[in-house]
Write a structure and sequence with these properties.
The strands form four sheets. Strands 9-10-11-12-13-17-18-20 form an eight-stranded antiparallel beta barrel. Strands 3, 4, 6, 7 and 8 form a five-stranded antiparallel β-sheet that branches. The chain is mainly beta and about 325 residues long.
């Protein structure tokens, strides 16, 4: 029975592959959930990597605000949320035509957020999320995030925005703590998210990459996916961003079934959170020899969680693989 369920599971996944699109689909290769997504785009053209607590007044970012595709709208509000308080979204600028270039500074944050009276009140661990809320001509309101902090953008739509526009749905501005390597190393817990129904907890080990010779930090995350895949990444000391090393990495001989050979992860991005010592890694493209899983990026969050283990909940791809007899 488990093998039958497994084969049905793989068949359902195959229907999401890029090469298996249906010509009768009115949305073509666009994901069906795009109709419920905020399609505002932020393209950063020039930016400081983060707000430095020692000189918080000096932050500045220039960005283009756009839409994923052309369409009529009444207005597009660029808003900011501080420290995850999504019940309080503060207006930075209102845009009525796109694309539009705007510059955001520390002073703009102070002017928008009532609880901030001076730049000196911005401290390590603060976080600002900048995104768009769209109002259509018929009055329909499409926020970038709900008041509960849930993004209204499906992962597939976010992925398309990155591929087609070279942008993202939001800009995360951090006030990082001083970087220390040691807390990022060792045995960790990893959360895997592929779709809302495919998630899990698991254990990994993070080590320094002995072969890396660059100016940043080379790391290897050991034990992903089915417990045997190792992912090589580079952590930038400039802005604490993450990229693949190399960008495309063949992870095994095959995945799911032997016909799906050379499973490859590519377009690898992410960031390190230096106060909580977490790594967030996005696998924006997942392909096998026959094609790619369209619009299904993987997200891994690697962190310390003493005593937290796989609790057996969720319908995880990893768990499905591990329970097949």
């Amino acid at each position: 029975m488990k093998q039958i369920k497994y084969l049905l599971f793989i068949l359902s996944l195959s229907l999401t592959m890029v090469f298996s699109g249906c010509e009768s689909d009115p949305n073509g290769r666009m994901p069906d959930d795009i109709v419920d997504s905020n399609v505002g785009v932020i393209i950063v053209t020039e930016s400081d990597p983060f707000i430095n607590e020692a000189n918080p007044d000096d932050y500045e970012v220039t960005m283009d605000v756009d839409l994923l595709f052309e369409g009529e709208f009444e207005k597009l509000d660029v808003v900011v949320v501080m420290n995850g308080d999504y019940e309080n979204m503060y207006l930075l600028e209102t845009i009525t035509s796109v694309p539009q270039t705007i510059t955001l500074t520390t002073q703009d944050l102070l002017d928008a957020i009532p609880s901030l009276n001076a730049a000196s009140e911005i401290v390590n661990g603060n976080e600002f999320n900048v995104f768009t809320n769209i109002t259509l001509t018929d009055g329909t309101y499409i926020p970038g995030y709900t008041e509960d902090g849930e993004s209204t953008n499906a992962p597939s739509v976010s992925n398309i925005i990155g591929v087609l526009k070279g942008g993202s749905v939001n800009l995360n501005i951090t006030v990082p703590c001083e970087f220390e390597l040691a807390p990022f190393l060792g045995d960790k817990v990893v959360d895997e998210f592929w779709t809302p129904d495919l998630y899990t907890y698991g254990g990994v080990t993070v080590i320094e990459d002995p072969d890396y010779t660059g100016d940043d930090i080379g790391l290897i995350v050991q034990g992903l996916w089915d417990g045997t895949w190792d992912l090589k990444i580079i952590l930038s000391l400039y802005d604490y961003s993450i990229r693949g090393n190399p960008d495309a990495q063949v992870m095994a001989d095959f995945v799911f079934i032997p016909a799906y050979e050379d499973p490859t992860w590519s377009n690898i991005t992410g960031f390190a959170e230096t106060c909580e010592h977490t790594l967030t890694i996005y696998i924006n493209s997942f392909c096998v020899s026959l094609g790619c899983f369209g619009g299904m990026p993987l997200t891994y969050t690697v962190y310390d969680a003493a005593g937290k283990a796989d609790d057996g909940t969720g319908s995880s791809l990893i768990r499905t693989l591990r329970t097949v007899e």
